[in-house]
Every structure is written in structure tokens, then in C-alpha cells.
Amino acid sequence: MYSLMPVRSTVLSAFMNTTENPPVERLLIPDMALTAAEYFAVNNNEKVLVLLTDMTSYADALAIVSNRMDQIPSKDSMPGSLYSDLAKIYEKAVQFPSGGSITIIAVTTLSGGDITHAVPDNTGYITEDSCSFVVTVISVRLLLTRSVRCLA
Q: Is 117 or 143 the better-scoring residue by pLDDT?
């Protein structure tokens, strides 16, 4: 006798851009992806995984836009608002009481393997180094939903 497990549908929603796209478009992509994730997590009670690549490219676009707005740059020519801008994105990882959740995996390209660069450094502070893996030139920081533990 076999029992049938209910089959859950899988939805893939991709928001993609490259460095050839205008910087303002690169700044909008994480918010657009997380808005779609919130829809599925809140309205459909789904567990949503958001893969954000590459947060260094996002930060570079942020630096370009802030430079054009005549803002004074800080470490590594990044804007002074980098920490709060990244935190605004990473803080969307959440477990909803209704059962839905958003888990974020943020990928950061290391410039020459330098983990002290502004982007991986700030990401480490924001996520409190929840889980991080360094693979040659790419550092992946796993932001877990607040109810899940990192299993190493």
C-alpha cells in the first residue's frame, strides 16, 4: 500500500541583469526579487529561497549612483550608506507566523580575495557571519530565516 504525498508546485521567478545594464536597474533588482518573494511567502504561505548574485555588482551600482549625486564616498569608494542599504535587503529574510518564509542566499564576489573589502565586510557584520563559505574568488554568505539554524 502506498500513500500519496501532496505535490507542491515550484515557481521559479528570475530577475536578472548584468553589468551592461544601467546602474539604476541593478539597484532595483534585489527589491523586485524580494517583493515577489514576499508575495509568495505571505499570500501563498510558501517557503521562498532568494538567490542574490552579485551583491558586489549591486554595491558598485550604488557607488556609481551616489557618486553622480555628489555624495562623499567612504571605504573602497563605496557610499556611506552601504551598510544600511545592504541591511535593508538582508533583513527581508523572515519566517512568517502563517508558515511562509523567505530565505536569502547572498553571493559576494571578492575583489582579489580580499574579505576586508567594504561589501563582504559589511555583509559579515549585518549577518553576524551566520554561515559563510569562501570558494576561490566567490564568497557566499547564507542568510537564514530567523527560525532556522546553520548546519555546518
A: 117
